[in-house]
Design brief:
The protein is α/β, with parallel strands linked by helices. The protein contains 10 helices and 15 strands. It starts with 16 loop residues before the first strand and ends in a 16-residue tail after the last helix. NADPH dihydro-nicotinamide-adenine-dinucleotide phosphate is lined by residues 186, 188, 298, 311, 333, 335, 339, 341, 343, 361, 363, 365, 429, 435, 445-446, 449, 451.
């Protein structure tokens, strides 16, 4: 294996375990993972590759895959499915009462139905507060909250999972992580391709429902929340709910929407679509730690680059004596993807005889630092959590409600055509107004900083 390449690590033998409190205990019953929506785009791109990788690494039993075709609105399909599962369990001599069935609903919300039985529900969880609550109530009639796994795959990304450790296991950050030191926080998602082939789906939702209300908001929770009293999933989720409940109503003047030119050429997109494919939204958290610090959530499709990152920009040094050459402020950047990294942009003396300053970085690039280590796909990790019964990285009902409460008024205004997206060129940075809003919010762009990637 060459330097910097990832590898799959196979476990010695297939073992199955579940989480009870903080302990993992072995389980023996036959495990069936039932993917509803198996012919869909998500299943093809994410669910099956993740299951395959888990299988390759020895986390799933070596059984055949079966495909059962049926309609979601007729009983026969489900009866056939039940027969197939029971047949499979019998063939594995599964003891009565020990079988484990995991239902993964990779389905649009309109199609949601009903040992242990757990269900995984894929986003979008509704379209707004009302529909999400309705969906939660319907699912709640069939399953208890500990059985429901609302999946947000950003919570399965390595550097998102690292946030808790980073914030609460490092003395460095504890005193700095607040309004006294941090000027602004950006949470950014950029994609360099459009809605290609998903225009019909996307147009019903738009970038806020697709990315911001879930993925970026979940990241915000982990960046902004208070320290949980323990690592128990419920205690972590309690803190996430609190921070969501502290977010103030979004102001129209702190929103920039965009739609890339050519988006409406997709035959599945209506000619007069008002759906944003780009949005910058500023959230303000009304609490002791964050009062006055803008949390800038940016997401866009068909832009000039692909990345997801958290950028924490610190305030200027008070009484600065090095005024001659200011390249930018201290920034702590957590690059979620691609090329996972964390780096801290800081001022140092320019090496040499002169006393001048230059911006440099403390760089933790994962590929260099963790050579030969496998970074699992988010879905792999999360599916394994569902089998183990660990809900830490899944969205609880009250969390979901609080998330929709933040965005529903804005989304309704967009749906009613009261706010219009600004056209932007595909392959650009998005609307210039978004960068202007950033500047207004206090973000200071770095100039003249050059990063030289470390060589091995
Ligand atoms: N370990 C690693 O991998 C490291 C990599 N680097 C690399 O060094 C380079 C510079 O790093 P860094 O300074 O952090 O990142 P960038 O230069 O990519 O961007 C810095 C910030 O400036 C914003 N910006 C960029 N162009 C404009 C513009 N025209 N108007 C307004 N705002 C703008 C970006 O917004 P937006 O987010 O919207 O693009 C981003 O918030 C990057 O390529 C980075 O990947 C640096 C250190 C370590
Ligand atoms: O949930 C979604 O995420 C993908 C991006 O996922 P990533 O892990 O590749 O960052 C996005 O393309 C899609 O529109 C959205 O529904």
């Amino acid at each position: 294996m060459g330097p910097g390449e990832w590898c799959l690590q196979k476990r010695d033998s297939f073992k199955s375990e579940t989480l009870v409190g903080n302990e993992t205990v072995p389980e023996i019953g036959c495990l069936s993972i039932i993917v509803l929506g198996a012919s869909g785009d998500l299943a093809k791109k994410k669910t099956f590759p993740a299951l395959f990788h888990l299988y390759c690494q020895g986390f799933l039993p070596p059984n055949e895959i079966k495909y059962v075709s049926g309609s979601y609105d007729a009983a026969e399909g489900f009866q056939m499915l039940d027969k197939e599962i029971s047949k499979h369990e019998t063939s594995k001599n599964s003891l009565e009462g020990s079988s484990r069935r995991l239902f993964y609903l990779a389905l649009p919300p309109s199609l949601i139905l009903g040992g242990w039985t757990r269900i995984v529900v894929e986003k979008p969880f509704g379209r707004d507060l009302g529909s999400a609550e309705e969906l939660s109530s319907q699912i709640g009639e069939l399953f208890d909250e500990p059985q429901i796994y609302r999946i947000d795959h950003y919570l399965g990304k390595e550097l998102v999972q690292n946030l808790l450790v980073l914030r609460f296991a490092n003395r460095f950050f504890l005193p700095l992580w607040n309004r006294d030191n941090i000027d602004n926080v950006q949470i950014v998602f950029r994609e360099d391709f459009g809605t290609e082939g998903r225009g019909g789906y996307f147009d019903e939702y738009g970038i806020i429902r697709d990315i911001i209300q879930n993925h970026l908001l979940q990241v915000l929770c982990l960046v902004a929340m208070e320290k949980p009293v323990s690592l128990k999933p419920e205690r972590i989720r309690d803190e996430k709910v609190k921070v969501l409940q502290s977010v103030l109503p979004i102001k129209d003047e702190e929103v920039v929407l965009g739609q890339y030119e050519g988006y409406r050429d997709d035959p599945t997109v209506p000619d007069h679509s008002n759906t944003p494919t780009f949005a910058t939204v500023i959230l303000r958290i009304h609490n002791e730690r964050w009062e006055g610090v803008p949390f800038i959530l940016k997401a866009g499709k068909a832009l000039n680059s692909r990345k997801a990152e958290i950028r924490v920009q610190f305030k200027d040094v008070p009484g600065d004596i090095f005024k001659c050459k200011k390249q930018g402020r201290n920034e702590f950047v957590i690059r979620l993807q691609p090329s996972e990294a964390m780096y801290m942009k800081l001022m140092v003396k320019q090496p040499g005889l002169e006393m001048s300053t230059v911006q440099s970085e403390l760089d933790l690039s994962y590929r260099q630092r963790y050579q030969g280590v496998t970074i699992p796909e988010a879905y792999e990790r999360l599916i394994l959590d569902t089998i183990r019964g660990d809900q830490q990285h899944f969205v609880r009902r009250d969390e979901l409600k609080a998330a929709w409460e933040i965005f529903t008024p804005l989304l309704h205004r967009i749906d009613n055509g009261e706010m219009k997206p600004i056209p932007y060129q595909a392959g650009s940075r998005g609307p210039a107004e978004a960068d202007e809003l950033l500047e207004k919010a206090g973000y200071v762009q770095t100039h003249g900083y050059i990063w030289i990637p470390p060589t091995l």
